[in-house]
Batch of 2 targets.
Target 1
Amino acid sequence: MNAIESLKHFIPELVLLGGAFAALTLDFFVKQKKLVGEFCLLVLVLALCLAKIPAKPMSLFFGMFELDTFTYFFRCIALTATGITLLLAMGYTPLRNRYEGEFYGMFLFMAFALITVAAANNLLMIFLGVEFVSLLSYLLVGFLKNDPKSKEAAIKYLLFGSVCSAIMLYGMSLLFGATGSLELKVIGDALFTASLKPLAATAVLFFFVGLGFKISMAPFHMWAPDVYEGAPTPVTAFLTVAPKALGFAVLTRVLDLAFWHFQGVWSPVLVILSILTMTIGNITAVSQTNIKRFLAYSSIAQAGYILMGLAVFSVLGRDAVLIYLLAYLFSNLGAFAVVTFVGEQTGSDSLDAYTGLASRSPAAAALLMVFLLSLAGIPPLAGFLGKYYVFAAAIKAHFITLAIVGTINSVIAAYYYFRIIRIMYLAPATAPALGAPSRTLTLALWAMLAGVLALGMFPSFFITRILG
Amino acid sequence: MIAIPLQHILIFSLLLFAIGLYGALVRRNIIGILISIELMVNASNINLIAFSKYTSLSPETGQIFALFVIALAATAAAVGLAIVLALYRIRKTVQADEVHLLKW
């Protein structure tokens, strides 16, 4: 489809881009920076309303932008995650300075970048999209101007990220040389006909480095705890969910279109990496004393579970990835919403701030408990559905070892999630009671609670919509 | 004019990539690490251009890719140096091993 025809299917993205520039301009003229945030939220809602499920897959802009149900799903994930993050950010005090407006504007660019990544089916677009997301993430992580931790997190993220994407780029250049094309489909066909097994294996490994960094897959997870601890809490919430989800989207597309012929080569590698990721994440999470760092390790472990679905790579496995990502979006953003609230009220992210939370702020404690139980995969919450699908996919494809290791890991995970719940409910309160959350934060909390409960209790509604 | 064989260019780019990776892993100065990363990116650029000249079905795609990569490398350098500068203002250091507030 040529550029002019494509534009009418590209309206949500155009709204986002226009909105982002408008927000930056608006930032010059308004004193009340919260207005910019509200404007950005409005743009996101508008984009979400304008996005329609495509009836059949379309290749927009001469095949540079693939619009299908897969893209649509990740478009919704990206817009929801960005919207909730904006809600969290609007109640976040450390941001209250003259740069606040730019912060909101950058999130609209981020939403646009994430959608481009989801729709990329061309090496050039994948590289551009992934770099776009990365550059914005570096800036957002280092946004707190006078906070040394935030700056340190940004520099670590920048160095790790640039090395990993440079390695991925080298893999792409080799792939281009071997197949003579940048289109994933053409690459897949060329790799099928020619006997280029060693080269395909090398290229796959290079892709795993670049995208494994984005999804915090071991052994490329080192940056995650530091960055998640140092970044402003709303940004942490965003980074644990959206770029990770989109990393999985690209990985699925690349493996599906370009390397499907070599499943025998990369599937065992992914199985090992998946086991490594969840084990490292879970074991290290047990001894954490900072809630952000704790959730960072838990999110590494969650990436391990999602990788299970990808390692299996059956139709069921891919569906499992999508469902797990949706459940993870609700649970993790919800947990971080509570962390933002408690951090705001007590000025601390250490676990000590949570002792006796049940008597100091019953609603916050109850909500955090629901989100943690969902992350642990307890029915009838959203996380259970995701775990169920992932394990079902592994067992159905006879990846029994993977399923057993996953189960053992779930038990370890349940232990440390319950540890937080024990601190909140059984330890006596030592600090004063907390105040009421801001209105935007309340909205975010209830929206995520609704998501967790709805996905857990009425799964069929979501499953039929996601899987078509 | 004698054309340089493809193999030579590939070996050159591999060497450049290895030097960049080595530098990124062992350097202590953050600016040095950023420069090493530029070397890695440029090694890929050489690959892209060489392949588009010798083997590609449509040579222009590789060249366009290389142009985009150059632009992105410039953007990444701008963002990277801005963050390094902000770090220096607060911590008065650009040595990677002296930046260790965040630890497990």
Target 2
Amino acid sequence: MKRLLTLTSALVALVSSKAALAEYGLNMTQGVTDVSQDIYDLHMMVFWVCVVIGAVVFGVMIYSIFAHRKSAGHKAAHFHESTLVEFIWTGIPILILIGMAIPASKVLIDIETLDKADMTIKITGHQWKWQYDYPEEGIGFISSLSQSSKDAIDDREKGSVAKREALDAANDDYLLSVDNHLVIPVDTTIRFLITSNDVIHDWWVPALAVKQDANPGFINDSWAKVTEIGTYRGQCAELCGKDHGFMPIVVDVVSKADYATWVAEQQGVAAAAAEAATQQWSEDDLMAQGETLYNTNCAGCHMTDGSGGYGPAIKGSKIAIGDAAEHLNIVINGKNGMPAFKMLGDADLAAVITYERRAFGNTGSVVQPSDVTSAR
Amino acid sequence: MSYTAAHDDHHGPEKGLLRWVKTTNHKDIGSLYMWFAFTMLLVGGALAMGIRAELLQPGLQLMDPQFFNQLTTMHGLIMVFGAIMPAFVGLGNWLIPMMVGAPDMALPRMNNWSFWILPFAGGILMSTFFMDGGAPAFGWTFYAPLSTTFAPDSTDFFIFAVHLLGFSSIMGAINIIATVLNMRAPEMKMMDMPLFVWTWLITSFLLIGAMPVLAGAVTMMLTDRNFGTAFFDATGGGDPVMFQHIFWFFGHPEVYIMILPAFGVISHIIPTFARKPLFGYSSMVYATASIAFLSYIVWAHHMFLTGMPVAGELYFMYATMLIAVPTGVKVFNWVATMWKGSMTFETPMLWALSFVFLFTIGGFSGLMLGIAPADIQYHDTYFVVAHFHYVLVTGALWSIIAATFYWLPKWTGKMYNEKLSKFHFWWAMISVNVLFFPQHFLGLAGMPRRIPDYALQFADFNWISSIGAFGFGLSFILLTYIVIDCIRNGKPADARPWDSAKGLEWTLGSPAEYHSFNTPPSRAVILEESQHS
């Protein structure tokens, strides 16, 4: 009995210490929007209602198990029906449910009602990365899992100890970091238009309380007004194939001034890319840029050395060493399991296709941005 | 009379292994179903061990992500279609003729067929692991277009297997309806029937309503994949969300197909060991029927995030919350049955009591999931995984194990080892909670389901959960031993091994005669054995 007491008090101490709670992440986030706070409150209300009902029902059961035992000499009663009691325990739950449904409906209607957004961002899911477009600003980019996370996952040659160190080095960003962050201004109502290019994905950032399916061929919408500057992370929440677990989301919420600076910067980058696409590129430049793009976009299926895995081998592939038109077509438009990459810029596509045709000992032709432009 | 005697003589079990292939006897077929389900439970459990081994630590240790997806998909399919459903059909086969005072099932040859389809369907499903491109990897819910345009070639075999499983289920359901309605002892009124019979009768109607919808869904997938249709392909004018509507119109009744017979089982065990008649027999029947009706009109609560209009979300939220009412009535009735009883805690009672506790926890998380705005944060996380494992493992599976211990003496004529069984119970009970309870926290903290690797803040609870999983997995080796030990070495059991058990099955010998009732029981016996006498 004494030992049981010690154990119980140790458990209570563990559970009640705030530090332990924070470290283990026991509960839903309260988030950084009014909606996320409303949802958290709703969650806690229903949770406590369940706790109270559970305490009553389980309490009665446990009392009965102890008091109405045969070994304690209890004799069985014989009652087995009561219409009144049945009415009571049908009626009370209905009242409790109505009590829950009213606030739940209010929050739901609030979430689904958006009169006017300050800005719009289009989110497109791809196997297995996110594309963000700012239609009003003319910015768009792809956001993939960061190289540090990829390195940490894939270091299979190293022993498990070294691997654990690699994971720790990636810190709490492991699998939750990307190359290009989504950047949004604080205190601004943002409408997200969410769709997909291939299978169903789901764009989820818990702190924003935005989780919405990305359906191919259809556009869903959702919105958020973030009140705190910071970096918030999320993940794809709908099974979308092999690398479903490896397409995280990172949102940087910045001040409105910082946002304006960022937009100007990105517009500069976009202009430079458009300019680059009209140029004739040297093979070395194409290969250098192509390698980076290949490792980000293609290596997941075709492997870094082009030997193939989930997708066919690029090394020695008929398409990669054959006519460039077919190669362009497959990369731009996709085929079967191969997703379309038409969202990449002309220069980027030219670089990655050239890389596929000239690396791994392949001897295909060099592809220029202008070839991509005419192949679209 | 001499004819009857000679007739009975001829109808003992056939000698040799062919008995099991050719049998039309409800007890033989019941046993076949149970052993098949148990085998599939072990296979599906082995796949789950693979999943939990990969998730023991962050990083990819044992398998590539695509194989992980194959494991989660096949684990779900095998457990739902291979383990839980056949186990309940097995229980139904064994028990329903005995409980309604019939000699056998109404359609014995079809009974044989509906079982023997299963091993082939299961075999086809399992064989996909060895095909080019691997087994289906799109989750047991096989959402289009991941399961159509983007799926491995083995998907067509999966579709065929699902069709076969559907045939089997529908035939099983027809057989049970025909048996209950036509073969029931003439003196037994509907409201005299034990609850296991009632719950199975209602489940059969769910099966007949739901399985053809599933068949429709996979057939549309088949033509989308192979014959150029575009039911679920937006580029051809179709809609991937329509797949989800069709799937869940099957899928939601399906979850009640897996839990209503469990309610029946628990409604037999608790009165027996509380030595008190079941409280609120008729309200239990009405509650079961209400749940079955509601199960058809709540399907889109699985789809709150697909982009439904707000009116749809509100409706599906309200309808879903309503299910808590009849389910609550059931739990309250069980507690009232225990109240002022004279309880003992033999193994079946331990499983039944822990069913009430743990299934109720699953019910609470189900209510939370039904709150549409909160579902934004719960949806597709480990909170959902925890929820449906609490209702399906510590709900459905728990009741199957409880039923096995409760009726094992009747089936085998032998008593199991009580001490070892109690030890096994506590082992399974503790490990299953170590396995699934932390998954609530993982989900709330933001871990999506169906991922082979996770961010480091999820590492500790995943580790705990995996350790629980290995312990729980091992407990089934002990369960196998207990059952085989009972069959081989058990002490002979009385015809009524539980002193206050009610039901016509206990008026038969232990083991029960090959043909259950050659003459229907009289009104007096039926009343004496009814649950509300």
